[in-house]
Every structure is written in structure tokens, then in C-alpha cells.
Design a protein that fits this description.
- It is a single chain.
- This protein is α+β, with helices and mostly antiparallel strands and 180 residues long.
- The protein contains four helices and twelve strands, in the order H-H-H-H-E-E-E-E-E-E-E-E-E-E-E-E.
- Helix content is 16%, strand content 41%.
- Strands 1, 5, 6, 7, 9 and 12 form a six-stranded antiparallel beta sheet that branches. A four-stranded antiparallel beta sheet has the order 8-4-10-11, with no helix packed on it.
- 19% of the residues are buried.
Length: 180
């Protein structure tokens, strides 16, 4: 092969690979209506006046990155969708923390750099892909929320989906308030 052909081929490959940004492959971006990260879309742009918020709660949400399926200890990887739902008709809910921990209790990832505002009756869904197996079978989220008063309480759940052999399965978990 001549050097010119190899150079053109290398330039073409670099151009193609540079076009494959991680966000273009992120299901949270691909599956959203506006093709934006749903957390970034909800980030609060102004400072939140926490003195006006009378309700604050931290939740523990179990997530299973994988489960064991048989006596041979076969491990099946699962995808998970975290769902935070504002159940009020008129008031916003603020989410200050979404942290992902592994089975050993080590922080894997903090998803928020700023609080997010979840409008009345809105839902934040966030996908943890099947290939992300850092969490393990005991992975979890810690989520901190704030609202105007005790009536602004969220529903926080996770849905895990997987397949084993020729069977598909799904199950869900609920967020549990953490006692400080």
C-alpha cells in the first residue's frame, strides 16, 4: 500500500471515531425527547432558597447490576432504570443528590453537580446500562430530595431488566427513607 492511501484511510478512521461521542451512545440521551441528558435538562440555573423548603429526605434505592442464576454461580447482567416521581399537582420537588454505590459501599458515581428541579407531576428516569457492572448485586442509589413541605413527597423506584437463556425477566425495588 502506498503512504497516501494509508494516510487517507487513517484520517477517515479518525473522523469516524471522533463522531462517536459518548453522549451519542448514552441511552439517557438517545431515548430522551430532546436528545439531552435528562439530569442536565433539569439542572437549576439559579440558587435554590433552601430556607423556603420545609421537607428534606434521603432515600436508599436498591439496584441490582447483576444476579446469580444457578448452582454454577452464573452471573446475569441487568440494566436498571431509576425513576424519581414528583407526586404533587402544583409544587416542584428538588433533587440535591443522586449517588451510585457498589456492593461494598464505595461511591461509584455522583450524578449531580447542581440540584435539579422536578416540576409538579414530572418524572426523572435514568438508565444504568447492563454493561455497567461496577455496582454488583448490592448496588444502590442514595437520593436526597427537598420540597416546600411534607406533602411534596416523591415516589422513587428502580426497575431491573435482564435475560437468561431464552427467558426475559423484570422486577422492581422501592426507595426507602434513610434514618440519619
Amino acid at each position: 500500500m502506498n503512504k497516501r492511501y494509508i494516510s487517507v484511510l487513517l484520517i477517515a478512521m479518525m473522523t469516524l471515531l471522533s463522531g462517536c461521542s459518548p453522549s451519542a451512545q448514552d441511552p439517557n440521551v438517545v431515548l430522551s425527547e430532546d436528545h439531552q441528558d435528562p439530569i442536565q435538562e433539569l439542572e437549576v440555573t439559579a440558587d435554590v432558597d433552601h430556607s423556603q423548603l420545609g421537607y428534606k429526605q434521603t432515600f436508599y434505592v436498591p439496584i441490582y447490576s447483576d444476579i446469580y442464576t444457578d448452582k454454577d454461580n452464573s452471573k446475569v447482567l441487568l440494566s436498571a432504570t431509576l425513576s424519581v416521581r414528583n407526586t404533587t399537582l402544583k409544587k416542584s420537588l428538588y433533587v440535591n443528590k443522586i449517588d451510585y454505590y457498589d456492593t461494598g459501599g464505595t461511591l461509584v458515581k455522583s450524578y449531580l453537580t447542581k440540584p435539579i428541579e422536578l416540576p409538579a407531576m414530572a418524572t426523572l428516569n435514568y438508565i444504568v446500562e447492563k454493561e455497567e457492572d461496577k455496582g454488583g448485586s448490592g448496588a444502590n442509589f442514595i437520593i436526597e430530595v427537598e420540597g416546600i413541605d411534607e406533602r411534596v413527597k416523591p415516589v422513587i423506584e428502580a426497575v431491573m431488566i435482564g435475560n437468561f437463556s431464552n427467558k426475559g425477566f423484570a422486577f422492581s425495588t422501592e426507595g426507602t427513607p434513610v434514618v440519619h
